[in-house]
């Protein structure tokens, strides 16, 4: 689905009639999915549903899985897990950006990592860390 310039896939822009047509579903099905929390659109100030391009893709996927006999409860769990993964990816992106900004604004700041056994390692700009390593940014108190 091609979106206009400057429109994010998560921006709620489609009214229910357009969303139902794009998803190939009856509007009442979209309302039911909203009621049970399966695919929840954004809302206008007046309470009208507004679906994003991402919601449309979710609806199409729900229709496909449902046609294959997957129960709605299982589909709901899959959507919940996808949303959680996306949230975690966003959080990692934000923390990575925060770390980058901190390093740029405080060239002398030290960053430490801890490993699974509790060992502490000072990280430099070129140090690679393993996935299971927790990164902790220490900020000295300002004062």
TrEMBL record:
UniProt domain HTH merR-type: residue ranges: 13-81
PROSITE patterns in alphabetical order: HTH_MERR_2
UniProtKB keywords: Coiled coil, DNA-binding
Pfam families to which the protein is assigned, alphabetical: MerR_1
Ranges that cross the membrane: none
Coiled-coil regions listed: 78-105
Name of this chain's protein: MerR family transcriptional regulator/heat shock protein HspR
């Amino acid at each position: 689905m091609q979106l206009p310039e400057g429109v994010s896939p998560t921006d709620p822009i489609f009214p229910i009639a357009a969303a139902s047509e794009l998803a190939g579903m009856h509007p009442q099905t979209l309302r039911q999915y909203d009621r049970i929390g399966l695919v929840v659109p954004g809302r206008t100030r007046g309470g009208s549903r507004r679906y994003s391009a991402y919601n449309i893709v979710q609806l199409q996927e729900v229709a496909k899985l449902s046609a294959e006999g997957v129960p709605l409860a299982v589909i709901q769990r899959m959507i919940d897990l996808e949303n959680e993964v996306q949230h975690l990816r966003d959080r990692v992106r934000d923390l990575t950006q925060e770390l980058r900004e901190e390093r740029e604004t405080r060239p002398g700041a030290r960053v430490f990592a801890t490993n699974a056994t509790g060992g502490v390692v000072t990280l430099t700009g070129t140090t690679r860390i393993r996935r299971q390593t927790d990164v902790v940014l220490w900020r000295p108190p300002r004062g």
